[in-house]
Specification:
By secondary structure, the chain is an alpha/beta fold. The protein folds into two domains: 150 residues, Rossmann fold; 167 residues, Rossmann fold, CATH 3.40.50. 40% of the residues lie in helices and 21% in strands. The strands form three sheets. A seven-stranded mixed beta sheet has the order 3-2-4-5-7-6-12, sandwiched between helices. A five-stranded mixed beta sheet has the order 9-11-10-13-14, sandwiched between helices. Helix 2 packs parallel to helix 8, helix 4 packs parallel to helix 6 and helix 9 crosses helix 13. The longest helix has 15 residues. The chain is globular and about 60 Å long.
Length: 333
């Protein structure tokens, strides 16, 4: 089986990425698995629980190297979360790995009660998130997970944008004393400029005060390419902020962008309802309000069109060209 392609839609976008000196790295899932194996090799209290996901979660090497530190429950996501919570309650550091669409929907009650309410420090790992499953369609797309889990107290939500954020997120989760949800897609990602990672903090990828892109996960690269394109074609200086922790949100970074930029565009591989965009909108309005233009770019309130991740991104304007046009439209109003 061939590796999934990066969700870059055009030769023009690839050209801009080359101008910026961006290098294509590994899929975040591979980085997750290799980082976890490194940590678990030195700490036998780290345990993986999977629901028939060791292959798709890139955990086959982990299972071969540390067979006593992995538990396979089969396709039984509710059991997965309950067992993970039980292991965490007796001192194990548990990473519960399952496709994001099933982990957060089928197991929502167990996440809410057994993990969050009971304060068991489980790292819930949603793999193949967003529209990573492409043509498998809406039944396999995870476009609700951030909205659902944002409503649950006592759980952090992390969506890495590149390999650096992915590796650091896993390392932090292994030390974390509270529940956390890690969301990973399947595609290889471009490596962004490195920056210190910590829960609750955003990452300034590109400075600028004309407009701001506030993005999370695999959409950050498209925001960065759009910012570069807008500078070349329109002379606009657009800020790009990567938000690896959707909850807790970096409130200061969001309000700072709104205070100086004429337009704010949030970008996410998620339904426009209940995700990063609405979190940012609420944060801005509950601050000093906002006199500029604001737009949430994500998947609208419909079942997604069929196609690859790249096709779906392109269709909904989650692309260099689409995001550039969004900013131009907002600033012309």
């Amino acid at each position: 089986m061939s590796a999934p392609a990066p969700p870059i839609h055009s030769v023009a976008a690839q050209t801009v990425a080359a101008k910026l000196g961006l290098k294509l790295g590994r899929p975040n899932l591979e980085v997750f698995a290799s980082t976890l194996l490194e940590l678990a090799s030195a700490d036998e209290s780290i345990v993986v629980v999977t629901s028939d996901s060791r292959g798709s979660g890139k955990l086959v090497p982990f299972a071969k190297a540390l067979p006593k530190q992995i538990v396979e429950v089969g396709i039984a996501e509710q059991n997965l979360v309950g067992i993970a919570a039980g292991l965490a309650s007796v001192g194990k550091k548990v990473f519960a790995v399952s496709p994001a669409c099933f982990l957060t929907a089928r197991s929502f009650e167990q996440i809410k009660n057994d993990v969050a309410y009971s304060a068991n420090p489980v790292a819930l790992v949603g793999i193949s998130a967003g529209v990573s499953y492409g043509a498998l369609g809406s039944t396999h797309h995870s476009l609700h997970d951030l909205a659902a889990l944002r409503a649950v107290n006592n759980i952090s939500l992390v969506v890495p944008a590149d390999n650096f954020e992915a590796s650091e997120a896993v390392r932090c989760a292994a030390k974390f004393s509270a529940p956390v949800y890690l969301r990973f897609g399947k595609a290889p990602l471009y490596d962004l400029p490195e920056h210190k990672f910590e829960f609750g903090c955003s990452r300034l990828v590109r400075p600028g005060n004309d407009a701001a892109f506030i993005a999370t996960g695999e959409t950050v690269i498209h925001a960065l390419l759009a910012a570069q394109l807008l500078e070349e074609t329109d002379g606009l200086k657009c800020r790009v902020v990567s938000v690896p922790t959707v909850k807790p949100l970096d409130i200061d970074a969001v309000r700072d962008a709104a205070s100086v930029c004429g337009a704010v565009v949030t970008v996410e591989e998620h339904m426009v309802h209940g995700g990063l965009g609405e979190a940012c909108a609420s944060t801005i309005i509950q601050g000093n309000g906002y006199k500029g233009r604001f737009k949430i770019v994500g998947i609208p309130d419909e079942y997604t069109v069929p196609g690859s991740q790249a096709d779906i991104f392109h269709h909904y304007g989650i692309s260099m060209i689409g995001l550039a046009e969004t900013v131009r439209g907002l600033l012309k109003r």
